[in-house]
Specification:
- The protein has 2 domains: 238 residues, Aspartate Aminotransferase, domain 2 (3-Layer(aba) Sandwich), CATH 3.40.640; 92 residues, Aspartate Aminotransferase, domain 1 (Alpha-Beta Complex).
- Helices cover 44% and strands 16% of the residues.
- Helix 2 packs parallel to helix 11 and helix 12 runs parallel beside helix 14.
- The longest helix has 18 residues.
- The two termini are 29 Å apart.
- Bound molecules: pyridoxal-5'-phosphate.
- Pyridoxal-5'-phosphate binds next to helix 3.
Length: 340
């Protein structure tokens, strides 16, 4: 199978499986798992935060961040397209009694400070208390500029808000900008990282923040059913993901560009290679009504894509240059049929 649906489909490498096999473990709810403890200390240091907590998923890590920054009746500002608004089942509202205040994302994924300011509520019993700004990087494959992050820091300082980053794919952002991860993380009070996407771990995300914030998150994680026991098996995978797979993201980005450039040569297909910044390519067809057929016909050839218009294609560890060439050949002949 050549699977373009997401970078979540990556499977653990042999070295990762070996590390999981060899992991020292204990009961992490008692704080006894040496692999989890070492991972949390190491990642906090690597990203210049005081503390870190290992979580079952990015959704859980974002929810813990929101519930630790905000009290009942608070609100967070975020993008209309933000994962932690749109794609996490309304968890902040359901489980945290926290209200989102979404703001339309600009074309480049940023949020306009003038618009954000207009949504900050006065301190008054009529209103929820605005306490947090949550950004996402990358967002739909786009990288937020470092200059924008610096402005966001100034903005939250001026308005006495906290600043969170949903950094599910923050290593893709650092790779695209060719900077150390701390060049990005330095602006935030908290940040999440997904290990189970392009970094190739089977399970797991991290939340980073101050000692006090992570202590709160640790309590909420248990309340939400996320207290795990011999989780060191997963910490071992996480360690390999960060140590061995960050450097491979560059290849995913190069592959995405190659994919976009070659798709664009096909009559009836449009991508914008100039807009490919990381590992995602968005594709439009001149005959969108053919998409369902395309999905089915490709599946018969062991190629998986998600339906949608534009179609989102994601490159990752388990997709090679040769796989992309195979895909280009198959999709070219299918699209040619639709043109008649
Ligand atoms: C995938 C993703 C998440 C959630 O991660 P899960 O592990 O799927 O829960 C959060 N934010 C962004 C931007 C993501 O892409």
């Amino acid at each position: 199978m050549i699977d373009f649906r997401s970078d979540t489909v990556t499977r653990p490498s042999d070295s990762m499986k070996q590390a999981m096999f060899d992991a020292q473990v204990g009961d992490d709810v008692y704080g006894d798992d040496p692999s989890i403890n070492a991972l949390e200390t190491w990642v906090a240091q690597q990203h210049n935060f005081e503390a870190a907590i290992f979580c079952s998923s990015g959704t859980q890590a974002n929810l813990l961040a929101l519930m630790s920054h905000c009290e009942r009746g608070d609100e967070y500002l975020c993008g209309q397209q933000a994962h932690n608004y749109k794609f996490e089942g309304g968890g902040a509202a359901i489980l945290g009694s926290i209200q989102p205040q979404p703001v339309e994302n600009e074309k480049d994924g940023t949020l306009c400070f003038t618009k954000l300011k207009s949504y900050i509520k006065p301190i008054d019993p009529h209103f929820a208390r605005t306490t947090l700004l949550s950004l996402e990087n990358t967002i739909n494959g786009k990288v937020l500029p470092l200059s924008y992050l610096a402005q966001a820091r100034d903005f939250v300082n001026e308005h006495k808000l906290q600043l969170h980053l949903d950094g599910a794919r923050v290593y893709n952002a650092a790779t695209a900008l060719n900077v150390e991860i701390t060049e990005i993380s330095q602006y935030f009070d908290s940040m999440t990282i997904c290990l189970s996407k392009g970094l190739g771990a089977p399970i797991g995300s991290l939340l980073l923040g101050s000692t006090a914030l992570i202590a709160k998150a640790r309590r909420w994680r248990k309340v939400l059913g996320g207290g795990m026991r011999q989780a060191g098996i997963l910490a071992a995978a996480a360690k390999i993901a960060l140590a061995e797979n960050v450097s491979k993201l560059k290849q995913d980005h190069a592959n995405a560009l190659y994919l976009a450039q070659n798709l664009n040569k096909i009559n009836g297909v449009t991508t914008n290679p100039d807009h490919v910044q990381t590992n995602m390519v968005f594709v439009k067809l001149n005959k969108p009504s053919c998409i369902d057929h395309l999905v089915t016909a490709l599946k018969a050839k062991d190629i998986l894509i998600s339906p949608g218009h534009p179609i989102r294609l994601v490159t990752h560890l388990d997709i090679s240059r040769e796989d992309i060439d195979i895909f280009i050949d198959e999709i070219s002949s299918l699209i040619a049929q639709y043109q008649n």
